[in-house]
Write a structure and sequence with these properties.
Elements: H1 2-11, H2 27-34, H3 41-67, H4 83-96, H5 105-116
Helix pairs in contact: 2-3, 2-4, 3-4, 4-5
């Protein structure tokens, strides 16, 4: 649990007492970016790219923090795990937990990947 808390704290901005921290990507905003939208191919491609970049950023940060011995490994991706697969896993998690859509995005990525890709 300490690793998860530390990871989420590193992904959010520090603020002084009394200052509000704005969360740029909530679960709802990420769901809008990650879920396919068949009405507009250009918007759909840009949104999926933003989603993939966000997921890759959280995954890369996790790998870097693990390699630097800052946190324990929270998930284990397979050698053949693809970016589209990460997106599908993440969307599935968000749809299964609509009560969490207002949560900060990175913490939801951590929860989704930890649930889908546990380290044995």
């Amino acid at each position: 649990m300490k690793s998860v808390l530390f990871f989420v704290l590193l992904l959010t901005c520090s603020a002084s007492v009394g200052e509000t921290i704005a969360v740029y990507y909530t679960g709802m905003r990420l769901l809008e970016k990650c879920e396919p939208n068949f009405s507009n191919d250009i918007v759909n491609t840009a949104s999926k790219s933003a989603c993939a970049s966000y997921l890759a950023g959280v995954a890369d940060f996790h790998s870097g923090a693990v390699n630097a011995n800052v946190i324990n490994r929270m998930w284990c991706l397979g050698e053949t795990t693809s970016a589209p697969q990460l997106r599908l896993v993440f969307v599935k998690y968000l749809k299964a937990h609509p009560e969490k859509l207002h949560f900060e995005g990175a913490s939801l990525v951590v929860a989704a990947l930890g649930e889908a890709f546990p380290c044995d």
